[in-house]
Automatic annotation (TrEMBL):
InterPro entries linked: Beta-barrel_YaiO, TPR-like_helical_dom_sf, TPR_2, TPR_rpt, Ycf3/AcsC/BcsC/TPR_MFPF
The keyword Phosphoprotein appears for this protein: no
Residue stretches spanning the membrane: 12-32
Lineage: Bacteria, Pseudomonadati, Pseudomonadota, Alphaproteobacteria, Hyphomicrobiales
UniProt xrefs under Pfam families: TPR_19 (PF14559), TPR_2 (PF07719), TPR_8 (PF13181)
Extent of the TPR repeats: 90-123, 124-157, 283-316, 394-427, 428-461, 573-606
Protein name: Outer membrane protein, YaiO family
SMART domains (alphabetical): TPR (SM00028)
Entries under SUPFAM superfamilies matching the protein: TPR-like
Organism of provenance: Bartonella apihabitans
Alphabetical UniProt keywords: Membrane, Repeat, TPR repeat, Transmembrane, Transmembrane helix
Keyword Disulfide bond on entry: no
Organism domain of life: Bacteria
Amino acid sequence: MACHRGDDKLFFRLLITIISSSGVYFTASAFAQVPSGAQANDKFWPVRNHQKLADAKSMARAGKPLNFDIPLEKASPPGVKSRSLINSDVKVLFEQGYQARQQGHYKEAIEKLEKASALSPDNPDILRELGLSFMGLGELDKAEPIFRQLLEMVPDDIEAKTGLVKIDYAHNNLEEAKHYTEEILALKPDNEEVKSLQTEILNAIVFQKKLEHTTRASSVIRSPSINDLKSINLHFGNKDYDKVEKNAGSDNLPDTISENLTSNYFLRLSAAIRSNVPDRSVAGDLAKRGFIFLTMGKVEEAQADFEKALGLAPTLSLAQLGKAAILYWQGDFFAAKEMVDHVIAIEPENSIARDFKFRIDAAIKFSQTEDKIKNENLSGEPLSDVSDNEQKTVGQLYEIGSNERKAQHFDLAKQHFEAALALEPDNADILVQLGLTLLALGDLDAAKENFSRALMIAPDYIDANLGLARIAYWKGELDKAKALCEMALSQSPDNEELTSLLKDIERAIASKNKIAKHGGTGNSSNGTGKDNPQLVESNHLAQQAAQIVASGKNFAHAEALYRQALSLTPQNVDLLIKLGNVLSFQKKFAEADKIFDLALEISPDALEASLGKVNVALWQNDYALARHRIDALLLRHPENEEVALSDASLYMAEHQYKRAITVYNRILEKNSKNLQAWLGMGDAKRGLLRDREAVNDYDQARIIAPDNRETLERIQRPIRKRWRLDIDSTYSELTAPYKNWREGGVALSYQLSEATILTGRLGLSNRFNMDDQQFELAIAHQFRPAVWGYLAGVVTPDADFLARYILRAGGSSNIGRLGKVGMLGATLDTKSEWYDNGVVKTITPGLRQTFFKDRMTIFAQWINVFDQKNKHSGGYLLRAETNPVDRFHFNIGYSSTLESSGDVLIPTKTIFGNIAFDITEDLTIGANLSKEQRTNAYNRLVYGLNLTRRF
């Protein structure tokens, strides 16, 4: 059967089904941050302080354990076989089996769970996990009796019934499968997975009836009969390729049938794989069978078919996409992306691969938690909160550390693994994971110590031996590295990573011996090309390092390879520049600066080295030094595009967006195809809040590079709302004999730029049978990522009871983390009120402290009042803000201070609170309540309502 593009689309639909069923969900999050130095009753702030945190969880398809509360610290890391157990405690066995299944190690899971089941044969949770593990391995016949036994114990067990649905569906017992879906949906109507299965089963029943009718009614169709196809299917699913017999006419299925094949029914209707057809045709059939195995959960069989297909046809895109689907399913998004990129490089018009690439890019974007990075840039706090590590179990710390390491947040991964190790210092798994993290950070000595400790606990730990071998290889200790590799391979001969490393080591040893034979000294002057073994080896090492850098992984490995290459050709300026860049990527800025200087000593005109020094200053936020260096380059290279792009990048970092736009325009006038200039232009316009204009620039970039991930991400950014309307109203009940008050106001805010907000407010107040109107104008500005300031002026024309003029000023800034609690910040508010008989001044410094990953903030303020005679009186305010769940925001507080009333300061104690609810992203309603008690004066109970609309 030839592999046509139409078939590819059919299988790509199958691929998307496989991906969707893996339980990876994506969600978006919004974030808003504003100055928090304002008083609780300040109305001019254009954006209320709140956050919406994204919560995206990868749920195991079949659920999680019910009755066991078992830590995760004993779980083996991905790719590592579990060591033999000394302790056969059923809970530990269950936990290990559960973790192995979650990681896709089904055979290991079955081994552990069968031991647990022998100790506790009537435990439904163990049976459930065992059945799911057999399902994952594709052993449907073994899973079926386990699920049926489980249903005898727990008749309404949804996961057991779901498993039987899939088994009956795979065995073509469609009516039985349909029956189980009805039972499940009666118990849980919102089960989306079963709804989808039920739809597919019902379609399959209808399709089968149509097919049988078509086969009986039409003698023109030259396709095999139903029974023939079922017979073929027995061989089609068989691993023995040569047993499949050719079936005449199997390539001639009618179009109406071919176009409506679902994943399971293609399994029954696919043509036989034949051994007497061209290799590429055979490879296409193998790739298709691989997708079928994936739908059955037989990942290992699918992988084998894809590998065999690529062996016959190395450029077969369908097989490459199949391997990428497995990697995607397993969460290795970067490896999947690399494989899909390879397909696109060969077939740029392949829309299937491009669509899949977009999905992978979205997964990578989510895994890197871009929303948290933005939060870090604004608040100065790290991606992952490690403040509550003391409250986490070893298993939780291990899991968080593993996720951070996979997302390449190595500093955070290190912190979590170290915290886990403090709780359980003899855990070999944690030691190895910490060692791998330290390798990525370039701390080879610390990594070596952790691997060595792990081997003292578990001498056969493969990843620990692999880590030590890699360190020895990077340090040039080739004989030692080879011995470690060979020892590890004797325990795990099929380990591809060890095999690949051993080949690199042996090649390096051979090259070293060849260099020694030729009397090489490490200089590159002994010849060129094939006559110079040093140069050949250096180029090979540099090529390896470049591939690692391109993948965005393991810069420490790339650094080691570049250093090895430089030891062979120490005067190679290109290698020095690449080493400097890799050091910069690892934030080793001082060392990178020295490497760039060394390159410039050898070649003073090496522009990339000079640009590297600009980046070193820029990435350390030393804008003055970066400006000095870029200005020097502009004098020497006034027309160079790379220099101009660096100049614009510096303006962007300094928030000088208009200047950046000028530079980008200059670049585009000379080269309208410069992708980075179009992207930079759009970013600069977004900095000026010209979002719609920015989209036009991003569209220009997409014309140049339609599949560029950075461009697609920017185009998807929402158009931000620049206007905000706030309406508030309060009603005050006063103690007799005073009449009640009515007050309210309307505020309109406009965001002038990314860092500046202008607000105007009209306030109306009715007190003591008199009316006052207030007109207020305020401006708030963000000076640095965590530093805000504001200035506001108020005028009251009549001033019957309010101050005639009011001037407010203040701001807020982060100080730093207070231990493991959260971010400590400082606030300052000042106010001057002009009455007919003098001026009352208020100075209020304060502190704020965040808790629970910024879900709660506590404020403490010291209120200092100076009356018309400059007499000082003190007071304080305590306030707590929290949003325990998304969309809801609570505020409660207490203050004790002096309130000015004409020329009198009245002691006032206030309890206040409010609640707000975000109806949508752009509409918020709120209510507040406060109670004021005054000494020798009236008391007041205040009710308030407010509404906020963004547009």
